């Protein structure tokens, strides 16, 4: 009996501990709702703030897009194109305002002009449109109203400017770029001889013939052009320069020489 009473006495404190421990885990009604309420309120305030920023940005963009283009600045060396013509051409494209102007469309419009090789367009805040243009560099005439530029591209214009000083190039379709290279080569080789190429023609077989400013024809053939011009330069300095006015044509297609044809006396009398 004594042993039992001692055993019960030892168990009582443990029961109290368990009751105390179980009581400590109780939740207080209402306390768990407050964090979720504040989180929801914070999200609402963030959404409202973002909406205000978006509305303000949209309003600012609408205001900027409505600003008209006040000035057009055109730069570049213009010899065959008037700056006023450029401004008149693109004026309808500016109706939407400074920010709404389609720069690529304006660039395409400018490049459609016959004497414009390339163009760039950009905005300069707050209301200026800057246009830089590069004109065609014509190195020869092509057909009736055509010109050929430094890259062998053909463009057309009714303008007669520089027509008298540019050599006339003529050949089948697709030969413009090759003729451009041949013309530059002849110009460089003949310049030290004070001879000018007025016309360069290539036929369907690729045979070249040049007409010089003094009326002499150079029959060049289709290959070894540089070697044949060098041979002509030697003979010209030694023999032909003194009598070039009477020379009708020089055939350079021979392997180790050339053939010279002179004007007839009757032709010389009429010159």
List the helices and strands and how they pair.
Elements: H1 2-23, H2 34-65, E1 71-75, H3 83-90, H4 103-111, E2 116-124, E3 128-135, E4 138-142, E5 146-149, E6 154-156, E7 168-170, H5 176-190, E8 197-202, E9 208-212, E10 217-221, H6 225-240, E11 247-251, E12 259-262, H7 265-269
Parallel strand pairs: 1-3, 4-7, 7-8, 10-11
Antiparallel strand pairs: 2-3, 4-5, 5-6, 8-9, 9-10, 11-12
Keyword list:
alpha/beta, 7 helices, disordered N terminus
Q: How would you sum up this structure, described in words?
A:
- The chain is α/β, with parallel strands linked by helices and about 270 residues long.
- The chain is about 40% helix and about 25% strand.
- The protein is built from seven helices and twelve strands.
- It has a nine-stranded mixed beta sheet, covered by helices on one side. A three-stranded mixed beta sheet has the order 1-3-2, covered by helices on one side.
- The chain is elongated.
- The N terminus is likely disordered.
Q: What integer value in Å does the Rg equal? A: 44 Å
The helix fraction, in percent, is 25-40%
The count of strands amounts to 12
Low-confidence runs of at least 5 consecutive residues: 1-25
Count of helical segments? 7
Q: What's the arrangement of strands in the largest beta sheet?
A: 6-5-4-7-8-9-10-11-12
Sequence of secondary-structure elements: HHEHHEEEEEEHEEEHEEH
How would you classify the helix and strand content by structural class?
A: alpha/beta
Please state the overall shape, judged from the principal axes of the Cα atoms.
elongated
Quote the beta fraction.
15-25%
Distance between the termini: 161 Å
Largest sheet: 9 strands, mixed
* Mean pLDDT over all positions: 81
